[in-house]
Design a protein that fits this description.
By secondary structure, this protein is an all-beta fold. Among the domains are: 249 residues, 7 Propeller (Methylamine Dehydrogenase, Chain H); 169 residues, 7 Propeller (Methylamine Dehydrogenase, Chain H); 82 residues, Outer membrane usher protein (Immunoglobulin-like). Helix content is 1%, strand content 44%. It has 1 helix and 67 strands. The strands form 18 sheets. A 5-stranded antiparallel β-sheet has the order 1-10-9-8-7, with no helix packed on it. The protein has a 4-stranded antiparallel β-sheet with strand order 2-58-57-56, with no helix packed on it. Strands 3-4-5-6 form a 4-stranded antiparallel β-sheet, with no helix packed on it. The radius of gyration is 30 Å and the shape is globular. Keywords: Signal. This is ABC transporter substrate-binding protein. InterPro entries: PorZ_N (IPR048954), Quinoprotein_ADH-like_sf (IPR011047), Reg_prop (IPR011110), Secre_tail (IPR026444), WD40/YVTN_repeat-like_dom_sf (IPR015943). It comes from Flavobacterium enshiense DK69.
Length: 766
């Protein structure tokens, strides 16, 4: 006999009261993979992977709840709406229980199961949530937990195996004075519901020893689904078959006078006389599998594996309405690219060892503020798999190129003309397939890191071949450059994203050979920056990313730390290049910035600060010289839905920073924008600054190194700074000491050489 005593400790309960409109962040989540649904009289609640959304069946209003609102789900496995308490109860694969209060939007994180050390991590999954008499009964992979919906505290835990051991419980119900539990390998077990000692395993007995998958109480009857793919009702002495579905039942539920059960290709709705009302086998023009379904009045709602939530009518289940909120096709986004009018997202990926298998066959998504999300379906992508990076042609806004780490290079023109380049149509100097002795006829063209130079040439890498550097010229001709005798075993090497500096030097991160620097304009000159003293001083030859900052320094992220090359110009006159660590003081101790950390991405913002993604540790914003950490965003302290940030992208015009993670895409509204060409478009916001405003005043549209002075109406200086990038902030304080009084303040802006000036005004109202 065991009991989880920690379930009564309030210390394990956290409350997040996030604003429903977090002004600094935006979320771009996929709502397509429906894990479970619940219902109320006038609403349906759907739970995708790590978010929740609802639809009001009367007003048709859609409402989403995600990490921007404070919902920090892991992988959702069960959802239940309590009509009595107006709360959404959300169970997760790792045992986390989330409670959303619909009245005020607050979110309760109950981490008792998650933090219980005596239960193995792989046995904490919450499979189902059943409400009875103000209690939520959680069917878990170890037993049953009771959660009081009034006090929001855990009560008893039932380990109901024949010898008191942990057993997997799929679903529970209360019927005729007994609590029933469907288990994985011990059939249906039950106990007297009024028994005050249900924590004693001996009070539980075998009701049926068959193999069952679900159980509900419906119209004073006990209904159960069996692993033999049939649904039964109990007549008081034995189970009688209602219907043989022919597929495993993945969801069994009852609501009001409706019985609903779902398999991968079937949804059945029965009335209170167990007469079939509807049978759904497909959604027209939608290829997917069903995961769950429910019925509210005369409406049916069907959750799918990857296409969202659909609504139809019980009397005519042929017309379907897509009820899914707008979002990308899936949450695990490998790369995002911001264009002037769109944000592009691709989902193909490879492992840390650059292995693209299993191959991905995904669509391409793109987002605009005006139209939301739309898609280029996989059927239109010429069979290209594992799409990894997107680049926009700066000389032709109608052209987008997407690299495939298996199929070559895609060109998308005017949204509908799609061409796939591979070894068959790029000539002898073009793309190449790696040689696989086990499959000599296989095509495996691993292209990555495409980038345009100033002349309109598109450069890219072709992994696992000798001639690994490729360029497609504006006239469509191809050229290759060999790494044979330059790097070690190029046929075993792979490459991340290329960057090109002002001198047209290509800087290429490699898996096995550090950074490869190449410039065809200097006699095809190569320099390798590798690990070890006198070879480049990298901490690891596995380089994941490179970035060139506004001072022409090369920042290098490796699998084991950070290095900086002081100037990319050194490539022009040196034969070897040495990098340096950044030394910072932490608690008065000198240490290396990001020592031994796996750096996945580095992006430079308009103020020359660096956004750095650390494997499993979220995203950092460090100052231009790396000496100061300005932000460190994690899942725990921000709306990031995961600490695995796969890609970072910045909108240079607005400063918005996009974080693509393995569990969703979010953005942070930064203020570091690219510098303008002149001062003609300077603007100040907000203006006026009203008493209720608590943020900072932004002055945007600046040129780089502009001098900005702010004075009161009498000419007294209250703030002065020099711009780095296109935007500065003012905290409305006089040199950071005290807030300035109400009044009009003059903003005097001058270029570095004084040849260009601008004057703006801002009104402060206290």
């Amino acid at each position: 006999m065991r009991k989880l005593n920690c379930f009564v400790l309030l210390a394990f309960i956290c409350i997040n009261c996030f604003s429903q409109q977090n002004q600094s962040w935006r979320g771009f989540f996929s709502y397509s993979a429906i894990k479970d649904i619940s219902q109320a009289v006038d609403k349906v609640y759907a739970a995708p992977e790590n978010t929740v959304f609802s639809k009001n069946t009367v007003t048709n209003e859609l409402k989403t709840i995600n990490s921007i609102d404070g919902l920090k789900a892991d992988v959702i496995t069960a959802v239940h709406y309590s009509e009595s308490f107006h709360r959404i109860i959300i169970g997760n694969q790792n045992g986390l229980l989330l409670v959303v209060n619909e009245n005020d939007g607050s979110i309760l994180n109950v981490i008792d199961i998650l933090n219980k050390p005596s239960i193995p991590p792989n046995k904490k999954k919450i499979n189902h949530i059943y409400e009875y008499n103000g209690k939520a009964y959680l069917s878990c992979d170890f037993g049953i937990c009771v959660f009081d919906l009034a006090t929001l505290q855990f009560g008893d835990t039932y380990f109901i195996g024949p010898a008191g051991e942990e057993i997997q419980v799929y679903q529970t119900t209360v019927f005729d004075g007994f609590i029933y539990a469907v288990t994985q390998s011990n059939g249906i077990r039950r106990a007297d519901y009024s028994n005050p000692n249900l924590v004693d395993f001996s009070q539980w007995s075998a009701f049926d020893t068959g193999f069952w998958s679900g159980i509900v109480t419906f119209q004073n009857q006990l209904i159960a689904s069996n692993t033999n793919t049939s649904v039964y009702r109990h007549n008081g002495s034995s189970f009688q078959q209602i219907i043989a579905v022919g597929q495993p039942i993945v969801d069994l539920r009852s609501y009001k006078d409706r019985l609903i059960f779902t398999s991968a290709n079937h949804v059945y709705i029965y009335d209170n006389q167990l007469i079939q009302l509807s049978h759904i086998t497909q959604i027209p023009d939608v290829v997917t599998s069903f995961t769950c379904a429910t019925a509210i009045s005369d409406k049916i709602f069907v959750g799918t594996l990857d296409k969202g939530l659909y609504q139809t009518a019980i009397g005519n289940p042929t017309m379907f309405e897509d009820c899914t909120p707008s979002g990308p096709a899936r949450n695990s986004i490998f790369n995002v690219k911001k264009a002037p009018n769109y944000l592009w997202a691709v989902y193909g990926d490879y492992t840390k060892q650059y292995d693209p298998y299993p191959l991905d066959s995904y669509e391409i998504s793109r987002f605009s503020d005006e139209q939301g999300w739309d898609f280029i379906p996989y059927a239109d992508l010429q069979g290209a798999k594992s799409l990894t990076r997107t680049v926009l042609n700066p000389y032709n806004p109608n052209q987008v190129f997407v690299s495939s780490f298996y199929s070559g290079l895609l060109k998308i023109e005017n949204d509908n003309q799609i061409t796939l380049f591979n070894q068959t149509n790029t000539g002898q100097n073009g793309l190449e397939s790696l040689h696989d002795p086990a499959c000599p006829t296989c095509i495996d063209v691993r292209v990555n890191g495409p980038v345009f130079d100033k002349k309109g040439n598109l450069w890219m890498t072709n992994s696992r071949v000798d001639r690994a550097i490729k360029v497609m010229k504006p006239d469509g001709q191809w050229q290759s450059y060999s790494l044979n005798n330059i790097t070690t075993a190029p046929k075993e090497d792979s490459y991340a994203g290329i960057v090109i500096d002002k001198n047209n030097t290509k800087w290429i991160p490699s898996y096995r050979n550090g950074v490869i620097a190449f410039n065809e304009n200097y006699g095809n000159k190569f320099i390798l920056i590798k690990n070890g003293a006198d070879s480049g001083n990298l901490p690891n030859r596995d380089v994941r990313c490179v970035a060139i900052d506004n001072r022409n320094q090369l920042w290098i992220g490796t699998f084991s730390g950070l290095r900086v090359l002081p100037s990319v110009d050194r490539f022009l006159y040196d034969d070897s290049l040495e990098t340096n660590p950044i030394i910072i003081l932490d608690d008065n101790l000198a240490q290396e910035l990001f020592y031994q950390q796996s750096i996945m991405d580095i992006v430079v913002d308009g103020a020359n600060n660096k956004w750095v993604s650390i494997d499993g540790a979220g995203a950092f914003l460090v100052s231009s010289n790396g000496q100061e950490t300005l932000h460190h965003f994690t899942k725990e302290n921000s709306p990031l839905p995961s600490n695995n940030v796969l890609d970072i992208e910045i909108d240079g015009a607005t400063g918005e920073v996009f974080f693509a993670t393995d569990k969703g895409l979010v953005s942070f509204k930064g203020i570091a924008t690219k510098p303008a060409e002149d001062l003609s478009q300077v603007y100040v916001y907000p203006n006026p600054v009203r008493p209720e405003f608590n943020g900072t005043v932004k002055i945007s549209g600046l040129i780089d190194n502009a001098n900005v002075k702010i004075t009161d109406i009498g000419g007294n200086l209250v703030y002065e700074t020099t711009s780095e990038g296109g935007t500065i902030e003012w905290d409305t304080k006089a040199f950071g000491k005290h807030k300035v009084a109400s009044g009009v303040y003059m903003i005097l802006i001058a270029s570095e050489d004084g040849t260009e000036t601008k004057v703006k005004k801002v009104m402060i109202i206290r």
